[in-house]
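look at this one:
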Amino acid sequence: MIRWLSRAVVAAGLLGSAWVHYVVWQDWASETDVVGPLFLVNVVAGVIIAIAVLVWHHWLPALAATGFGLATLGAYVLSLTTGFFGVSERFTTQAELWGLITEVACVVFALPLLFNREGTDR
């Protein structure tokens, strides 16, 4: 039951991050050369990984979810500090807050799935 709940939270985090990136892409990111396409990659990858986390009880989707969360958080930290392909953020919007929450959830709830693999297909 707890593993299923963790999978559900990870999937929700992935889908939430995908949604935030889609909304931001529609708002302004579609106008940027590098970041715009990367936001769409995030949208598609978030949905695909979320489905994999729910249906394939293997360590690979958990690894993908962890990597997704860390990579997205890393790009966001760069945008807050040095800039990321010309984009500089200031952590002032609801989208940024929800993106942060969903991506942290991906990492925090996927790590136990990755390291405690009892009852998974190998």
In short: The chain has a mean pLDDT of 88.
